[in-house]
Amino acid sequence: MSENGKVFEWRVSDELCPTEEDSGSIVLWILSDGAKINQGDIVAEFMVQKITHELQAPASGILHIKLEPEIEAYKGDLLALILM
Amino acid sequence: MSTKEAAPWESPTSGESRSRSLTICRAQREAVDWEMAHDERVFMMGEDVAGFGGVFGTADGLGDKFGADRVIDMPISETGWIGMAAGAAMEGMRPIIELAYVDFIGVCYNAIVNHAAKTYFMSGGQFKVPMVLISGTGAGYSNAAQHSQCLHATLAHMPGLKVVSPTNAYDAKGMMHTAIRDDNFVVFLVHKGASGVGFMGPLVKTSLSDVPQEDYTVPFGKIKVYREGTDVTIAGVGLAVHQALESADSLAKMGISAEVIDIRSLVPLDRGGIIESVAKTGRLVVADEDYHSYGVSGEVIASVIEHDATIFKAPPQRVCIPDVSIPFSRPLEYSILPLEERITSAALKTIENV
Q1: What's residue A50's pLDDT?
Q2: Does the CB of B57 have a partner CB in chain A at under 8 Å?
Q3: Are B31 and B203 in contact (CB under 8 A)?
Q4: pLDDT at B354
Q5: Which of A75, B98, B109, B143 lies 20 to 30 angstroms, CA to CA, from A4?
Q6: What is the DSSP string of chain A?
Q7: Which CATH number is A51's domain given?
Q8: Dihedral of the alpha carbons of B327, B239, B316, B154, in degrees to the nearest 10
Q9: Catalytic residue among B35, B47, B78, B333
Q10: Is the minimum CB–CB distance between B199 and chain A shorter than 8 Å?
Q11: Could you tell me what percent of chain B has a pLDDT over 90?
Q12: What is the value of ipTM here, to two decimals?
């Protein structure tokens, strides 16, 4: 299925949620589960304290969504797996 | 012509085309982006468009991309700069201007109604006004009487301007392309609750759509049939269309088949399309978040009756804001909005009257 068998764990970054108290949620996944994504693609919108951030793919591969929209997430929580 | 950098999703390494689920504000912004990149006469002007990207996300990133000469922040002095934009349009530019809340149309109404809308007529066709006015409409989030109105009829009543209000991302992008390329003055209204900005709360799922990457147009003057049905037509404007879809689900559970149509173009109005739907169902509910009296809802009903007064199996119904100012209090506000329960009740009234 994946080209080199590696799995990238895409997590909520320190930039999005700097402290342990900060939380946010996916507004929507622009690209769908199972899509082939490239590093830098705008894949989702993530909202922290009413500010929406565009999430760019940190790696290229097949997107496997692990966090559905509107669910509260904290720093380090898994957003998606990218099969590289 | 300025050159446009490829957006990330246009990367040539992307391989096969992928479907993208977009919000209304993102989709309409993509059309503005495309038109600005392909036509240097197109520019954007409004409150908080450059630095903030538009209060409702309509210009996000455009200020950085096109610079301060083409995405211009304006003070709260709409009389001046909307008049200025109309003048620029008459001189050959193609301005896109943003008035964040349609509630404030009053302060620039003269520039809109007496200049932008009438100059083509009064100059005997010598001056066109190819301008797009973007504005946010609607209630539902306790923003009180001065930040919650739709004012559809206040605009659609006036000759000389087109008024459209898309309700999903696909239409928003295609209708924005149509609006910018139109040589006439177009007012482009989007309900704030359906626009898809995160801070307005959970997204309206039925407002999201797969949006092609390339440019395309959606013509004005055509209704969109969201859901086909045989027992009652529910014609909606703006967010009320999404409430009408929920109502159709409720009615289906009672064995009633509702057809949901989106008026989406108030001027020009697709009277033929509406009549065709009502001819099939014989019953009509119009759901419009504008005030009840003297509104688009009355115009839609009158248009059907003028065509054929015998078409109705039951008296048509309007589900609108009762003729009161919109309250701040959430329970009071929700009691007057054209929400699913009120639309369903109105639809049942047309059925029970048989």
Answers
A1: 84
A2: yes
A3: no
A4: 57
A5: A75
A6: --SS--EEEEE--TTT--STT-EEEEEEESBPTT-EE-TT-EEEEEEETTEEEEEEPSS-EEEEE-S-TT--EETT-EEEEEE-
A7: 2.40.50.100
A8: 70
A9: B78
A10: yes
A11: 90
A12: 0.81
Tell me which residue range forms the domain holding A66. Answer: 7-83
B298, two tokens: 């009355």
CA distance A80 to A82: 7
| Residue B199 pLDDT | 81
CB-CB under 8 Å, A32 with B198: no
Model confidence at A23: pLDDT above 60: yes
Buried (b) or exposed (e) across A54-75, using 16+ Cβ within 10 A?
Answer: ebebbbbbbbebebebeeebeb
B203 contact residues in A (CB cutoff 8 A): 27-28, 69
Q: Is residue A2 part of a domain?
A: no
Options B30, B35, B98, B147, the catalytic residue:
B147
Q: In this structure, is residue A54 part of a structural domain?
A: yes
Can you tell me whether residue B269 is helix, strand or coil?
coil
Instruction: Please tell me if residue B5 touches chain A, with a CB cutoff of 8 Å.
Output: no
Whether B13 and chain A come into contact, CB under 8 Å, resolves to yes
Q: How many CB atoms lie within 10 A of CB B5?
A: 8
Phi, psi dihedrals of residue A24, rounded to the nearest 5°: -155, -175
User: If pLDDT is split at 50, 70 and 90, which confidence band does B3 have?
Assistant: very low
Q: Which of B55, B62, B168, B199 to probe the A interface (max A CBs under 10 A)?
A: B199
Structure tokens at B215: 């440019």
Is the CB of B9 inside 8 Å of chain A's CB atoms?
yes
Q: How many domains does chain A have?
A: 1
| Alpha carbon distance B205, B194 (integer Å) | 9
- Partner residue opposite B198 with nearest CB, options A27, A29, A38: A27
* Residue B12 pLDDT greater than 90, yes or no: no
Average pLDDT over residues B111-115: 96
**Domains of chain B as residue ranges with CATH:** 20-210 (3.40.50.970), 224-352 (3.40.50.920)
At B352, is the pLDDT very low, low, confident or very high (cuts 50, 70, 90)? confident
pLDDT of residue B197: 87
- List chain B residues with CB under 8 Å of A68: none
* Facing B9 at nearest CB: one of A32, A41, A47: A41
pLDDT digits 0-9 by tens, B51-91: 889 988 899 999 999 999 999 999 999 999 999 999 999 99
